[in-house]
Automatic annotation (TrEMBL), chains A, B:
One of its GO terms (cellular component) is cytoplasm. This is 2-dehydropantoate 2-reductase. It holds the Pfam family ApbA_C. One of its GO terms (biological process) is pantothenate biosynthetic process. It catalyses: (R)-pantoate + NADP(+) = 2-dehydropantoate + NADPH + H(+).
């Protein structure tokens, strides 16, 4: 399968490398890491193994890649305005598109541009840091949940799930894409947000501070109430479970916090702004998220 | 009247200078500005006038000052644990104590130490910055509201009001000290707090950002609801009025924000922690203040 990875940050590098290792023809669209990847390949470090792909097909322009069977969009949502130009050369009528981007609104964005193509969304519950150019470190293997955007075929989403499963990624089919997008926000909204707003701290600081941990849980309750409004329900204790799975991560730096401290754009609208707007429009009160969003919008300006 | 100023930051310098100019025998207890004040005096810059007191009685140790008629406490509340040692040499049974400190709990602290003395609290609604050693700049003259702490005599508070009035300070008697302490928090909690939490911004950024201004007003509503619970009521539109009086201040740096950006201790407990605890104990929900306090406690660590 010819797979184009659009946006080769931590997520793109990691899944692209695993898919290439499993025999797919993977093309990485890159910017900052391009020369290093061409020279040294892509390196993946995990807790129990590490590997280097000595040769990768790395490109700076999607014209050089051409039409692909599958396009995985892993560019930051803050750069969505540049996406059409990057995607057009990669897409014909049979191309499938899968966005692994954070937050809400990204699959709708692709569907609006390519209304006749199959569009899917994938949610990566994983801990990854790009620790050097073309080097990605994985802290927790986690899983990928893939579902069809409005109008896409569920069975084709299941085929995509197999592509990931066969590459060694725990992947599952999720019929309710919007639901799992909200589900991922249950972690991302508090931990990415508080890590920035509390001054650039790691997740251990949040779970170990009684006040910050209480705010994290209150934010989760707001997100879950909003998700309920959109038809997604959570099992009892889901917020506590988020804290429990975060504890063993230790001094983990959430991706948005890394973006922030390194001076890169932060996905403020995709992760905090759009959920706040959608929830408020659905009548859900979000006093904590309002405060966090107001601060982040300024801090990340 | 022999007046000792304990803590010669912006507040202490400003009111001490005005009182000395009006003929009182003022002694400034100082630390960082001591040598400059001894050599150059104290300078006050206001929008419509400025003056220098060439000679001031500046001391580094309150033993050198001795017993005073009035002790004005204007040290940071974060340093309250050092207060007894500073105050003991200044106080005999006739000494009056007036705290001009921010936040809640400071007059009770003095009363606990000097149970037989008259203790008063004063709230300074004023914009001051100490712009250089022993130089204080005034942006808005504002007013001082003075009231008796539990058990102190109202008529003596009125005498204190005259001391300030005669020195050219708009001063008023307030029988309900706790009420005006909450009233001052209506401005201090949002503007000092958001200025820090939004990354070290001035008040103009807060009033000009729709999101931050909305959060500022929501914080004010919480503080006013708490004050109501303690018997203090506000006229309609009081929160909007706070925004209105803040607009002409322009790029004003609230005192806590200056402390924060200059690496000095911030009065997190007096301004945010103690009000939150008192309000929650009185059954008032404070979702916004909880979030702000959790962030500030970490940011100002």
């Amino acid at each position: 399968m010819k797979i184009a990875i659009v946006g080769s940050g931590a997520i793109g590098l990691y899944y692209g490398a695993l898919l290439q290792r499993n025999g797919h023809e993977v093309a990485f669209l890159m910017r900052s890491d391009l020369e290093v990847a061409k020279r040294d390949g892509v390196r993946v470090i995990r807790t129990d193994d590490e590997f280097t792909l000595d040769r990768v097909a790395a490109f700076g322009d999607s014209e050089e890649i051409g039409v692909s069977d599958l396009v995985i969009v892993s560019i930051k949502a803050t750069a969505n305005q540049s996406l059409p130009k990057m995607l057009d050369p990669l897409v014909d009528e049979t191309t499938q598109l899968l966005t692994l981007q954070n937050g809400l609104g990204n699959d709708q964005f692709l569907k609006a541009r390519f209304p006749n193509n199959k569009v899917f969304g994938g949610l990566c519950f994983v801990c990854l840091n790009r620790i050097a150019p073309a080097v990605v470190k994985n802290f927790m293997k986690g899983s990928v949940s893939i579902g069809p955007s409005d109008g896409a075929d569920a069975s084709e989403a299941e085929t995509l799930v197999s592509v990931f499963s066969e590459a060694g990624v725990k992947a599952r089919f999720e019929p309710d894409l919007l639901g799992i997008q909200w589900k991922k926000l249950v972690w991302n909204v508090p931990f990415n947000g508080l890590a920035i707003a509390a001054g650039g701290v790691c997740t251990d600081v949040i779970v170990e501070s009684p006040e910050l941990c209480s705010e994290a849980k209150a934010l989760m309750e707001e997100i879950m109430a909003a998700a309920n409004q959109f038809g997604y329900t959570f099992r009892d204790g889901f917020a506590d479970y988020q804290i429990e799975i975060t504890q063993p991560m230790g001094p983990y730096r959430p991706s948005s916090m890394i973006d922030f401290v390194e001076g890169r754009p932060v996905e403020v609208e995709a992760i905090w702004g759009e959920p706040l707007r959608q929830a408020k429009a659905a009548g859900v009160a979000m006093p904590k998220l309002e405060m966090l969003y107001a601060l982040l919008k300024r801090i990340c300006k």
